[in-house]
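Kindly inspect both lines:
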Amino acid sequence: MPKNIYARTIYFLCGENNVNNTTIGQLTKYMGYTIPRLRPEDLFQTLHQHKHRILLIDHEEYTQFKSQIRELPLVNRSFETIIFNVPCRLTTDELLAFGHLKGIFSQNAAIDDIARGCEGIINGENWLPRKVDAQLLFYYRSVVETQTAPATVDLTAREIQILRCLMIGASNTQIAEDMFISEFTVKSHLQKIFKKLSVRNRVQAAAWAKQHMHPTY
């Protein structure tokens, strides 16, 4: 499709050594126009220009150049992000690090699927797997729910999530799976919760939650 019909533009965020990325070359041929390159350090100079930039990022390369520039402004509202070449499921924290995330494509994604997704994103659509949608929705709901905790108890978003799970009788294994964390991390959170609430076990913690916290819907 001709590039000039779009008000929004995709740029390939790349390091110095990856200007000839194979996937970008294939996308250029498939979509019919050149995808401009943008270096990580250039982001600081373009924050207030071209507000409709969409950053296309090779996940494998990102893990290399992010250590060189520690404060990539990906969370700035000026940018939207598309991640491709993703080898496995990302944690919630990893997803949030990409800021305004619009699309994710795995290592096995076909080039026509990536191209179709990019064109959809240019037109304002989201192109995220259902599991990622659910993962982010779970997180943002928990952020809202932090406002329902009593002000006298300093609970984190994670701790409130776990308390809500206790309210419905979830096991440590179920909590770990739902929150995409390890059982060891769940146990660590529980110990902190017990201390903050001055309770001895999960039964007492669940009872406290049912008395003090609003139910979720």
About this structure: Residues 3-128 form a domain with the Rossmann fold fold (CATH 3.40.50.2300). The chain has two domains: 3-128, 137-212. The first strand starts at residue 9 and ends at 13.
